[in-house]
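Hi L.,

You mentioned the student needs an example of a multi-chain input paired with its predicted structure. This one should do, with 667 residues in total across all chains.
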Amino acid sequence: MALLEVRDLKTHFRTDDGVVKAVDGVSFSVEKGKTLAIVGESGSGKSVTCLTVMGLNPSRGVETSGEALFNGRDLLRIGGEDLRKIRGNEISMIFQDPMTSLNPVHTIGRQLREAVLVHENVPKQQANARALEMLKAVGIPRAETRMEDYPHQFSGGMRQRVMIAMALINNPDLLIADEPTTALDVTTQAQIITLMGRLQRDFGSAIILITHDLGVVAETADSVMVMYAGRAVEQAAYKGLFYEPHHPYTWGLMDSMPNLAGDDSAELTPIPGTPPSLLRPPKGSKFNPRCRFVMDVCREIEPDLKPVPGDPDHIERCHLEEPVKQSEIERISAERLGAVS
Amino acid sequence: MIRYIIRRLLWAVVLFIAVTAVTYALFFIVPADPARIMAGKSASPQEVERVRQALHLDDPIYQQYLRFLKKLVVDQSLGTSYANRQEVNDIVAAAAPVTASLVFGGMVLWLLIAFPIGVYSALRPRSKGDRAAMIGVLIGISAHPVWIGLLLSYFFGYKWQLTPIQGYCEVFTPPAGQSQCAGFSLWQWAYHLILPWITIAVLYAAFYVRMIRSNTMETLNEDYVRTARAKGVREFSVLRSHVLRNAMLPVVTMLGMDLALALGGAIFTEYVFGLPGLGKEAVESIRRFDYPTTVGLTVFATVVVIVFNLLVDILYAYIDPRIRLS
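Structure written out for the whole complex:
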C-alpha cells in the first residue's frame, strides 16, 4: 500500500466573487521512500493540494472533499488534534521562502527544540541535543554557537537548511517541500537539492516536491504529476514523463526549459498567455486558450485522464491523436533532452 | 547594546535643547507684555519698567534662554511663577502625580479592555462579536473625552450618586480637613479617579482594540505562523508564542508614545473632573500669561516624552532581537 494515497481531492474556496476551484479532483499516490514531483505554474493548485493534505488551509470559506489516506488514515477526516499530532511528526513541510518562514523573535535552537517538544515528552537537554545533531546533519557550520542565533543572522540558504533540519528532526515518513529552492540563488539551489537527496537516503522519508523547475524534477523525482488550473493534466513515472511527454502543457514546460547540453539551436519558447482564472475557467480543456494544437472539440469537452498506449501508469488529459503527439515527442526529444539524459 | 543606549542618550540631549529653545522662543513671540501683567492694572509706566528689568524681560531672547538653561542645569530650577511667586518646580511636583495617577491607571484599564477584545476580534473576523467590537471602536474614537466625562459625571456622579464628580485625593499625604478624602487613602484615591480612568480609557481602548486586532490578523498570516502549525504546535501555543509575541511589538511603541503624550497633560479629562494635573496647570498658566510656569510644564512634558522614547527604544531592543545588533 502506498504511504499517501490521495483520491479525487477537491479544495474550493468561497470568495465574494464566487467559488474558486483551486484543486478540482486530483488523485495521486506516494510510495515509501520515493519522491513525487508536482509541477505547474503559479496558481495551478500545487501548494493548495499539499496544504489541504496537511490541514493548513484557513478554516473558514473552504470546502474540501475526497480522501487522503496516510498509512490508512484519512487525513481529511481525522480532525484537528489527531492531525496536529501527525503534522511535524509523521508528515512535515518545508516552505518556499526561508526568509519569512522562521519566527524572527525566537532563536533557531528554540524553534528546532519546539518541533521535538510538541511531539515528545523529553527533557529540554535531550531536545537540544537532537536539534544540534540535525543542524550538523544539514551542514550548518559552528552549529553549537549558531543554536543561540536568531533567523536574521542566517543567510537564505542557511535558513532553508534550518527549515529542513526542523522538518526532519522527528524523522517523518513524508516530507512535503513546497518550492524549497525557488527563493534561493542557483548555486544554493543545487546544494539544497543535493542535501535533500542525501537526507532522503539517510532517513528514508518519502518526499513530495512542489516545483515549477523541470530541471529540479529531472534530478530528484521518481514520479511526476503536472498540474494545470487545479487539475492533473499528466501523471507518469519520471522516465515516462521526460521521454514520452504526452500533454501540450508539458511540452510547453519543456520548451521553456534551457537545454543544458549547450545546443543553441533550440530557443526557449515560452507558453503564450497566462493561466486561466479559477473563478471562471474556460469551457472544455482548461489549457485550450493557450494550446498550439487546439481543436474544436477541446473548446467544448474536457478530456478525461486516460492511459497512454503501452504504459498504463502514464496518464494524461488531451484530445490530440497519438500520431500528432508522437511527432511532437520526437521533436522535443531531439531539441531538449540533452539536458537530462 | 551599551553603544546603542549611549547613542540614544546623546540624541535625547540634542532633542531636549531643540525643543526647549523652540518653546522658549515661541512664548516670547506672543504679543503680550508679561511685565505689564505682573505689575498690575493700575501700575504706572515706571513701575512696569522696573518689573521688566527685575525679570530681565528687556534682554534679548537668546540671553533669556541661556539664563533659563543655566538656571535649569546648575540650580535644577525651572524658575518662579509670575502669577504667585511659587517655584515652578513645586507646581510641577504637585501636578505630576495627579496626571501620572490618571494616565497609568487609565492605561491599565484600557489595556485590560483592548487586549482581549482585540485578540478575539482578530481570531473571529466578521463574527457578530467582532462587528460589535468594531462599532464600539467607532463610538470610542468618535466620542470626545469631554462628552464622555460629562455623561459619566451626570449618571454615575449626580443622578445615581455612585462616585464623586470632582477632585483628587492624595495617597500618601492626604491633607487634613479635606472631608471628601476622609478614610482609607488608597481607596479614596482610586474612588475619585474611577470616572477619569474610564473616560481616558474609552478613547485609548478604542484605538488599541483596532491596532491589536489588525496587528494580530496580520501576524496570523505570516509564514512563520504556518511553519509553527506545520510543526504540530498546539493552537494556543501558536497564538501565545508565535503570533502575539510578534503582534505586540508595534503596540509597545504606540504605548510608549501615547503614555508620554498623555503625561504631558490629559487636559480634557483633568478639566472635566477638576483634577489639578499638568494639563490643567498648563491651561491656567497660559491664561494668566504666566510664562515661567508654561515653559516649565512644557520642559517637563518634553523630558517625559524623551525619557519614554528612550525606554521604548531600550525595551524594543530587548524584545526584538533584530534591533539588538543593528
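You could point out the following to them. The interface with chain A takes residues 222-224, 226-235, 237, 241-242, 245-246, 249, 319-322, 325 of chain B (CB under 8 Å). Residues 211 and 251 of chain B are 7 Å apart (CA to CA).

Best wishes,
N.
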